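HUMAN: You are asked to prepare a plain-text protein record giving the amino acid sequence and the backbone structure tokens, both parts labelled.

ASSISTANT:
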Amino acid sequence: MKRTNSRTAKTSRNKTVAARAKAPPSAKGAAAAKAGSPASSAKGKRKAAPARTTAAPRASAVAATRRAPPKRRALVADRAHVYKMLKGFSTVMLVTIDNAGAGTTMRARPMAVARLAVDCTLTFVTSAATPKVGEAEQTPQGNVIAQSRTAYLSLRGRTEIVRDRARLEAAWRPAFKVYFPQGVDSPDLCLMVFHPDEAELWDVSGTRGLKFLFDAARALLTGSTPDHDREQHTRVDFSGA
């Protein structure tokens, strides 16, 4: 009797295994099989691709600056300081070199800033018939001077004369029509683009001014000389990248 029951149980288990082998795959198994197919894998890869390119460029630039050596970080900060100071000036003095006479003469003229680039390149709109254009074409080296009650800037660099139509349109302002009634179509219109090689700044504006007064008062009481940090006075190199 026991032997018959054992044979019956074994036969029942064999039928169950055979039935499971013939049954269709479950929904979960089908999904897993579909996910493992080449088409599904390619689709998954296409969806994942954007995630690798979502890093913000600005965040990457900030991270790169933080990883840079201390001298590089200081240079980036100094250039940003010069740019911030220049943004506060609508008019600066452009200095050109006049070699027409027996000697060399430096001539300074007030110029309205038409454009200011992030690298501190300054663009001015002027007439090609003016002496300063001829002076800059003959001797590109020059200076830009900017001054307020609490901020002072001196930039040394090169002046480029530009007559390109696209760049003229980019720098054009309606206020310039006072001097150039024909607008961008004025035949003598040109740009003087100043590229700085070096800047020197003196900045005692805002909290820097308060710090300067405190240091000056302390130096007066102690008979010493006040110290200046690089935010108050420094030279900034623009010649390299």
Observations:
- The chain has eight helices and eight strands.
- Residues 25-55 have pLDDT under 50 and may be disordered.
